[in-house]
Amino acid sequence: MVKSKKNSSTKKQGIMTENAIAKPALESSFLEVVEMIQQARQQAFQVVNTTLIDLYWHVGEYISRKVETANWGEGVVDQLAEYIHQEYPEIKGFTRRNLFRMRQFFETYRDDEKVASLVRQLPWTHNLLILSRCKHPEERESYLRLCQRERWGKRELERQLAGALFERTILTPPIVSPLATQLYPDATTVFKDTYLLEFLDLPAVHSERDLQQGLVANLRTFLLELGADFTFVGEQFRLQVGGTRFCA
């Protein structure tokens, strides 16, 4: 029996239509699997990071106790670093410098339980940057909390430290109206009086249009500077506040 080309063509179109309908549903299912994988990876990373920070904390504590009780002199730490290097070359990261950093890490946070739990949630590189660049407990705690809340990477943390974010926002908080504070209690932590926009590379004298174009072209970096409470809606988006209309 010979089938007509018309019937064959109609059948193929039906299969293609079914595939087109099934694809969005399958893609949605696939995305769920990908999300599970990504969540598991993030959880695994967090477990490994917490374990590593705990190790550095306990090594720092051990060295600190030994030195405080005069069982060890400063030179013994050098010997420890050399011993690990010679006898266990596969163990990396325990140089003399890093061992003293671990001791400093423990001694800086040991009397502050609230912050001691917070440092375990951040990578070691973040902790070292904050430890080396911040002089006061309040400043350290501020950057630790911001890193956790804003999910800063190393480069963004370095940028905010270089731009003295703590001095700009905490020591000199923005002026917010009583109504805004009443409606949104965290308003003073969301807005800043000044923003770092050096990434725009604008000349010292520039127009408002130059600023707008620069912000749109560097939108991702600008949103990082604003903080996690902001998102991009559109360019020249019309807003009405009271009886006045604005373009944002």
Note down, in words, how this protein is organized.
With 248 residues, the protein is mainly alpha-helical. Helix content is 67%, strand content 3%. Strands 1-2 form a two-stranded antiparallel ribbon. Strand 1 and strand 2 form a beta hairpin. The model has no long low-confidence stretch (mean pLDDT 79).
What does the overall shape look like?
A: extended
Tell me the helix content: 55-70%
Helix tally equals: 12
Rg over CA atoms, rounded to whole Å, is: 28 Å
Report the portion of residues in β strands: under 5%
Cα(first) to Cα(last) distance is 70 Å
Average pLDDT score: 79
Give the low-pLDDT segments.
none
Please provide the ordered H/E string of secondary-structure elements.
HHHHHHHHHHHHEE
Descriptive terms for the model:
mainly alpha, 12 helices, 248 residues, single chain
Q: In a few lines, what is going on in this structure?
A:
With 248 residues, this protein is mainly α. 67% of the residues lie in helices and 3% in strands. The mean pLDDT is 79.
List the helices and strands and how they pair.
Elements: H1 5-68, H2 74-87, H3 96-109, H4 113-118, H5 124-133, H6 137-150, H7 154-162, H8 165-171, H9 178-183, H10 187-190, H11 208-217, H12 219-226, E1 238-241, E2 244-247
Helix pairs in contact: 1-3, 5-6, 5-7
